[in-house]
Specification:
271 residues, 7-stranded parallel beta sheet, two-stranded antiparallel sheet, 9 strands
């Protein structure tokens, strides 16, 4: 999903589009990075999801494409940070806890993406930039994250449902149809914990003691084939608050406008 079509729209709209190489399809990703440079002259980055990367040359690949901003996730910040920074890249690491954040700082990262159940951010002794993730879908949720110390926000589910997102319309419509209880938490007693849309497959796995990853299914049939029962449709709780498919530019414009209106209202009404 995180390839040139969607990522360039995010960059052109004033955000930072991110490309994935973690699928291992490096020849395809190389072409997507070339497309990015054709579709936008704005900054963009690459995310290395370490749990899915099997190629030990991933750092050389990313740096060799001229990418200078990298986010790393799903693994230890000690694994790639030093080599990426030695090659001149700026590195942000995704963290779910304070302990993980401190470990990432020790590894020498340049910033943090702080991912939680509802989003939010915090400061730390080195005062690195904090990008809040999880539960961010509009201006008020962005304002809430900033009130807790974030310097920026990251959107996942909101961008999956965007007009430029390449996922099948069935998945986008499932996000629109989701209610406030439309997601489930899987692997409550094992790892990794997963939040996903409520479907027949995920409801059957919700309270199972078995690791849901063993029954994840075929994501390609889900993402691009539209078969909502073929795999686990990962999604944030904000699916219950998304009710229209919008272009990325409109999503970002509305979010920034709503953010400004929220902080102005709070400033005038509270102070």
């Amino acid at each position: 999903i995180a390839r040139a079509q969607l990522a360039s729209a995010v960059s052109n709209a004033g955000g930072l589009g991110v490309i994935e190489p973690s699928s291992g399809e490096l020849d395809v990703v190389r072409g997507e990075i070339e497309k990015m440079r054709e579709l936008t002259d704005r900054p963009f980055g690459v995310n290395i999801a370490q749990a899915f990367v099997r190629d030990p040359s991933i750092v050389e690949f990313v740096v060799g494409q001229g990418v200078r901003l990298v986010t790393t996730s799903a693994g230890s910040p000690m694994k790639y940070t030093a080599s990426l920074k030695a090659a001149g890249a700026t590195v942000f690491h995704v963290v779910p806890t304070l302990a993980a954040a401190l470990k990432a700082i020790e590894a020498g990262v340049d910033g943090l993406v702080v991912e939680g159940g509802e989003g939010g951010g915090f400061k730390n002794p080195r005062d690195l930039p904090i990008v809040a993730a999880g539960g961010i879908t509009d201006g008020p949720s962005m304002a809430a994250a900033f009130a807790l110390g974030a310097d920026a926000v990251q959107m996942g589910t909101r961008m999956v449902s965007a007009l430029e997102s390449p996922v099948h319309d069935n998945w986008k419509q499932a996000i629109l149809a989701a209610t406030d209880t439309g997601t489930v938490m899987l692997n409550r007693h094992t790892s990794p914990a997963l939040r996903a849309l409520r479907t027949g497959r995920t409801e059957a796995l919700e309270f199972s003691d078995d690791n849901a990853m063993a029954q994840f299914g075929n994501p390609t049939d889900l993402y691009f084939g539209g078969d909502m029962e073929s795999a686990i449709p990962l999604s944030g709780q904000v699916a219950g608050r998304i009710d229209e498919i919008l272009p990325v530019q409109e999503i970002i414009d509305r979010t920034v406008a709503g953010f400004t209106a929220t902080i102005e209202r709070l400033g005038a009404g509270v102070l």
